[in-house]
Amino acid sequence: MQEIEKLKQLQSQRETLRKRTAEAQEAIKSRTEESTKTVCPECGSRQLVQDNERAELVCQNCGLVLDDEVIDRGPEWRAFDHDQRMKRSRVGAPMTFTIHDKGLSTMIDWRNRDSYGRAISSKNRAQLYRLRKWQRRIRVSNATERNLAFALSELDRMASALGLPRNVRETAAVVYRDAVDKNLIRGRSIEGVAAAALYAACRQCNVPRTLDEIAEVSRVSRKEIGRTYRFISRELGLKLLPTSPIDYVPRFCSGLNLKGEVQSRAVEILRQAGERELTSGRGPTGVAAAAIYISSILGGERRTQREVAEVAGVTEVTIRNRYKELAEKLDIEIIL
After folding, report:
1. Global pTM?
2. Helical pair 284-298 and 260-275, crossing angle rounded to 10 deg
3. What is the model's pLDDT at position 1?
């Protein structure tokens, strides 16, 4: 009974911490809004720079000092490596949407050591084992949290397999949480909605991945991911622009070990093609692959159509058709 009471106290502390975090976020948001509204009284410019060395707020346009003695809200200590940073830090990990409780709950570590690193006596180990077990049970209290815990772990697995950055994972978690709040999960598989949320997040963050790439790492078919994505984007009002072929160029060039000059030339070819509306109605990956193929020939780093097709995930026929269109309409002379 004492262990259950301790866990209840932990839960109440967690709720208090959540409220404080929400209040702090509101305060930060209001401060940010105030700072964005600030304009220079001399020239009316909004390009204001905070000089941390002099603790001043300076107009970048005319040099007027708008404020001095600005409070430094950072830590008062310095750290030169990870170990020093971890020892001197007095707070935990930041709040994240990729964990079902946003990372605000406490966690009893699996190592039987106290805060000083000393081994815990055998007398207290049994009590710690029971506390650990109850902590795991109380952390997921209802069906919604169980759903979120499973879906967010699935999201993290797929994002790791695709090598996606942190901001894409956070955005995907927010999209999935919005779908849960609007009760869009009912009648659909959790894996399908999670994969669709990840695809939408990739497009929102301009880190595009094709439906085929998402389907390879997920446990559902490409058709179901596409259908679920269209449904949640319509219900949540996600305004996503069509993917640009230029977004795929850096990744494909990296996969082909091409230099920066070849990449820049491919981007320029795609820009000219976009101005003449040669990319509309065509798959962005195919157009990007064709531009890279042309650029590799012009830059003296020739890659075969098969090599480019394998990296881009399209067929050689697609590359052949697209590069002929681009070469003809943009008057590019290619010597094979």
Report:
1. 0.69
2. 130
3. 59
